[in-house]
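Re: that backbone. Tokens:
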């Protein structure tokens, strides 16, 4: 499995795509997933993005992700993770140096923000060159499992083009990295590099479980 330095240096004709999660991967964020009773609408609990990763919803529960669509809340409270800012900006710079066909894509469980301009400005505030990031995909979803499948669907849409022979994913949720690696059997000619961002914001090669 190739390392980060090897990933960004390309031979002629090679192209890569990197998928980057936002919450607890690129930013420490403070929006909550609100768990409600389906029948009464009563708020039962609020979950951080870290808690949401492993939460098992009961049949009589539903989630409200309105805080994750609040662009002002995102801009006013989020704090970029320095190690990841350096890593992502390095990736973006490498596109100019090594490969015009490379892509960096934001891939988040968030629903579409209510003000995309404010949302994007948050990245600029923290020195992230979002204007050179190819796209942002807001998967949303009504359960954690739907988020996993939603991210996989987006990744397939890029890999199906046949333009990329290397792909990397930065994630704090191991279940998303597990799904990412499961796609390798569908794209045997593509090198997959899974990067787990731990609770200290340190990205390391994920070994799998």
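Recovered sequence:
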């Amino acid at each position: 499995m190739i390392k980060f330095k090897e990933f960004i240096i390309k031979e002629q004709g090679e192209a890569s795509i990197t998928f980057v999660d936002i919450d607890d991967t690129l930013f420490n964020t403070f929006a909550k997933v609100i768990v409600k009773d389906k029948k009464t609408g009563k708020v039962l609990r609020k979950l951080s993005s870290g808690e949401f990763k492993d939460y098992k919803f009961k049949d009589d529960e539903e989630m409200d992700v309105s805080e994750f669509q609040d662009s002002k809340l995102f801009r006013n409270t989020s704090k970029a993770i320095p190690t990841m800012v350096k890593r992502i900006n390095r990736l973006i710079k490498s596109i100019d140096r090594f490969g015009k066909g490379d892509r960096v894509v934001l891939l988040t469980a968030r629903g579409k923000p209510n003000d995309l301009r404010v949302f994007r400005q948050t990245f600029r505030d923290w020195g992230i060159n979002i204007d050179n990031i190819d796209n942002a995909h807001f998967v949303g979803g009504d359960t954690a499992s739907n988020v996993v499948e939603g991210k996989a669907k987006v990744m397939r849409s890029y890999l199906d083009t046949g333009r990329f022979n290397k792909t990397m994913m930065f994630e704090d949720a191991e279940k998303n990295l597990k799904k990412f690696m499961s796609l390798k059997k569908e794209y045997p000619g593509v090198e997959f590099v899974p990067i787990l961002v731990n609770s200290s914001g340190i990205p390391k090669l994920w070994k799998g479980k």
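The helical segments are 4-8, 49-54, 71-77, 82-98, 116-125, 144-159, 174-182. The chain has seven helices and eleven strands.
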